[in-house]
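General statements about sequence and structure are easier to judge against a single worked case. When preparing material for the folding task, we compiled for one chain both its residues and its C-alpha cells. The amino acid sequence and the C-alpha cells for this protein are reproduced below:
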Amino acid sequence: MSRTLFTRLATNRAVLRIAPYVLPPCDLFIHRLTRGRLLPSKLVLDTIVLGTTGHRTGRPRATPLAAHRAADGTWLVVGSNFGRPHHPAWSTNLLHHPHATVTAQGRSWQVTARRLTACEKERQRNRILLAIPFYDTYAARTSRDIRVFCLTPITAPHRLAG
C-alpha cells in the first residue's frame, strides 16, 4: 500500500471512527500468535508494542504504537489517540510509571519514558512526523496538547522465546 493511500485512509473520518477499536486488537492478536515476530501495522508504519503498568490497576498493559527509532537507540512515541479528545491510557500509565518495555522485531528492551516539553517537541518535529506522518491532521482534530514521549533503553535487548 502506498504511503499516500495509507495517509488518506488514516485521516478519513469514517476510518477514524472504527480504527481505534479494530487495529490495536488485531495487531496484538497477530503479535501474540507469532510470538512477537509479526505486527501487521509494521507493514505501513514503524510499530512497536509498548508494555506499561496500569496506573490504577497495577496490571500489565500492551499497546501497539507507531514509533520512530533514532540512531542513538531511543524511540519516540506520540499519544495522538487517532485525534480523539482524550489522552490514550498508555500515556497516562507512563506519566505514573515511567518504566516500561518495548517489543519490536522479536526483541524486547526495558525502557524509561520521559515526556517531551513543548520546546523539545518543536525540535523533534521531524521525528514526530517520521513516527506518524499524519500528526498534523490528528492534532487539528483535538484541542488537547498531544503527549510525546522519548523511550530510552535501560537494558540490552533480549530475544523473545519461540
The chain has a mean pLDDT of 85. The chain is about 35% helix and 25% strand.
